[in-house]
């Protein structure tokens, strides 16, 4: 007699590690967005963990699991913005100049389209060294994102000095364009900074010409 086959309801199947990871990342990003908006709306970060967790719709225990320190709550929001812009740059049309792609992607970012909220957020991030450290760390981490996006557009090694330099200067331009002391619109300030850098760094290298007959060794 053949053993009876057991059917497993699709809804009860255990989730994969990837699904668990993605769900955690979504929850963290949603909580981060909620906290950042709360800070902006009230002009301060002076909220307890209990208040932040309740506003985000998660338990205090979950909050501490995702964000060991209160200041950590802003990082997913800031990081997601950098990742989104770098992805946009890498996916822009190949016949568009890299500088134009950088300016276009930045001009469509949250930082450039929500200037008043951006200024408010900067003020909050300067409330303490811990919050400011989060902002600066995200800016530093974004250098690698920019380097990767620029390398793909230029067809160069993302680990090369040129890619690293390009990533660093673009990250610096992005940071300076959003500092509260800047009177310019962030998108205009970013474009101005890239113009000051000149086109050489962001222009694809010309391919080496084929050797003339008889020149090959």
Number of helices: 10
**What Rg is obtained from the alpha carbons, in whole angstroms?**
23 Å
**Which percent band covers the strand fraction?**
under 5%
For the residues shown, what is the average pLDDT?
87
Helix content: 55-70%
**Main sheet summary:** none
Summarize the structure.
The chain has 217 residues and is mostly helical.
Would you give an account of this structure?
The protein is mainly alpha-helical and 217 residues long. The longest helix is centred in the first third of the chain and has 26 residues, at 17-42. The radius of gyration is 23 Å and the shape is globular. The chain is built from ten helices and no strands. Helix 1 packs across helix 2 (49-56) and helix 8 (129-154) packs across helix 9.
Attribute tags:
single chain; 217 residues; mainly alpha
Strand-helix topology:
Layout: H1 17-42, H2 49-56, H3 60-66, H4 75-91, H5 98-107, H6 110-113, H7 115-125, H8 129-154, H9 161-178, H10 186-197
């Amino acid at each position: 007699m053949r053993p009876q086959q057991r059917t497993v309801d699709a809804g009860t199947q255990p989730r994969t590690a990837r699904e668990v990871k993605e769900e955690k990342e979504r929850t963290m990003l949603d909580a981060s967005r909620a906290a950042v908006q709360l800070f902006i709306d009230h002009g301060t970060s002076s909220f307890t963990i209990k208040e932040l967790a309740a506003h985000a719709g998660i338990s205090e225990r979950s909050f501490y699991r995702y964000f060991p320190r209160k200041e950590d709550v802003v990082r997913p929001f800031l990081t997601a913005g950098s990742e989104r812009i770098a992805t946009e740059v890498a996916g822009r049309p190949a016949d568009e100049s890299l500088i134009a792609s950088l300016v276009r992607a930045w001009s469509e970012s949250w930082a450039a389209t929500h200037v008043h909220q951006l200024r408010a957020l900067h003020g909050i991030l300067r409330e303490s060294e811990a919050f400011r450290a989060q902002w600066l760390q995200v800016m530093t981490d974004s250098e690698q994102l920019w380097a990767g996006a620029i390398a793909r557009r230029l067809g160069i090694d993302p680990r090369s000095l040129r890619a690293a330099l390009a990533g660093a200067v673009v990250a610096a331009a992005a940071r300076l364009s959003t500092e509260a002391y800047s009177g310019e619109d962030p998108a205009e300030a970013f474009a101005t900074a890239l113009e000051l850098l000149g086109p050489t760094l962001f222009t694809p290298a010309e391919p080496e010409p084929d050797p003339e007959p008889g020149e090959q060794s």
